[in-house]
Amino acid sequence: MSIIIRKNPMIEKLKNKSDMDILEFVKRIPDKYEDFYITINKNRVFLKDLDIIKKLLKRQTFYGLYNPFLTGIMLIYREKGFRPYLKILAEDYKSASNLIKFLIWNHSHEDLFIKIKKDNPINKIMRKYGFIFHGGRGSEILLTRKGTKQKPIKRSKNYGKGNP
After folding, report:
1. How many whole angstroms separate alpha carbon 117 and alpha carbon 33?
2. How many Cα atoms are found within 13 Å in the side-chain-facing hemisphere of 157?
């Protein structure tokens, strides 16, 4: 088992080789609000199993915040092509906020959804970054953020220097 250590805080897309980092993180950090799960056939599956994590790494998008160890993870979960749901688990408020800031900058073109408990502190962060109440059921709420529907334009390194 090799744990990745970074000198400076950074967020990166997690690849298949990150499976043990993710497993170690979800076992180390308690999911107090029980919001870090996916739904399979109407059943909640909490992400604490290596096989599930490996399958998700192949098909879904994971980001990790390293400072210097993994301090937060974010999953963008697309079930059968429907709306993308966010799943966030972080050591602290600042790590969660940094992951959400990264999300806003890098996924502004997509409509995004997150279903969390009303009393989860991530609720406050999501609203700060433009997520609005979409619906609720019991102790859970659904927040959403409309995307721009236009992917950012990738420009060459020489853009603005006389070359297109």
Report:
1. 7
2. 0
- Helix crossing, 50-59 with 19-28: angle to 10°? 130
Q: What does the pLDDT look like over 78-93, one tens digit per residue?
A: 887 678 999 999 999 9
Q: What value does the mean pLDDT take over residues 54-73?
A: 94
Cα-to-chain-centroid distance, residue 36: 10
Q: What CATH number has the domain spanning 10-145?
A: 3.40.630.30
Distance CA 126, CA 67 (A): 22
Classify burial at 158, counting beta carbons within 10 Å of its beta carbon; exposed 0-12, middle 13-18, buried 19 or more: exposed
Question: Where is 94: in which H helix or E strand?
Answer: helix 93-106
Task: Count the neighbouring beta carbons within 10 Å of the beta carbon of residue 156.
Answer: 9
